[in-house]
Amino acid sequence: GQQLNQSPQSMFIQEGEDVSMNCTSSSIFNTWLWYKQDPGEGPVLLIALYKAGELTSNGRLTAQFGITRKDSFLNISASIPSDVGIYFCAGLTGGTSYGKLTFGQGTILTVHP
Amino acid sequence: EAGVAQSPRYKIIEKRQSVAFWCNPISGHATLYWYQQILGQGPKLLIQFQNNGVVDDSQLPKDRFSAERLKGVDSTLKIQPAKLEDSAVYLCASSFSRSDPIQETQYFGPGTRLLVL
Predict the structure, then answer these.
(1) Nearest CA to B77 among B30, B111, B40?
(2) How far apart are CA B28 and CA B17, in angstroms?
(3) Which of A4, A95, A98 sits opposite B56 (nearest CB)?
(4) Are A110 and A12 in contact (CB under 8 A)?
(5) I need a labelling partner for B12 at 20 to 30 A (CA). Which of A40, A98, B4, B22 fits?
(6) What is the model's pLDDT at position B17?
(7) Looking at CA atoms only, how far is residue A106 from chain B in angstroms?
């Protein structure tokens, strides 16, 4: 089946630092999504990317949909303590047909004040 | 706008017992998903409904798992009998439809944490 390789698995950073994480796949996806999951909660959508090459920002977050449609990255600038959590990339196949969301393994982010 | 509701939030059972989870999607969302999230992993899709019909249950262990969405709104996921390896968080998600990528955006509930002893 389809697999997404997300890296790094975990990051320990100081408040104010920038963060970068990425996701690669051997399969092509039509949509790339980035979610954040806090302890005891479900994933919350941060950014959605719909076109190859697309670069999208949401506040301090920036994500890009790779040209090959097999990869994506997420950057967080000037990290703050509330950025702590698990970040998941997800790829959506199908587009206008039966969309199936495949998740990466997650990146655990710890921010030290 | 109310989000996806799930209950119970936590459940502890012994192996070979049965358990059921309930999900109420966002109002107006036609598509409903059940995911299993094992500790340290990303969610894995178990089953997808479009209204009250199943469109993908290829990863549902049908010998012990079942799900229904009889009236096209609420859904229940059942495990009978439970095994130790079923310990996980069961997430429900919903989306408006599957007609285009934007409308397919999935919104997740808080999940039910199941521990099988």
Answers:
(1) B111
(2) 34
(3) A98
(4) yes
(5) B4
(6) 97
(7) 6
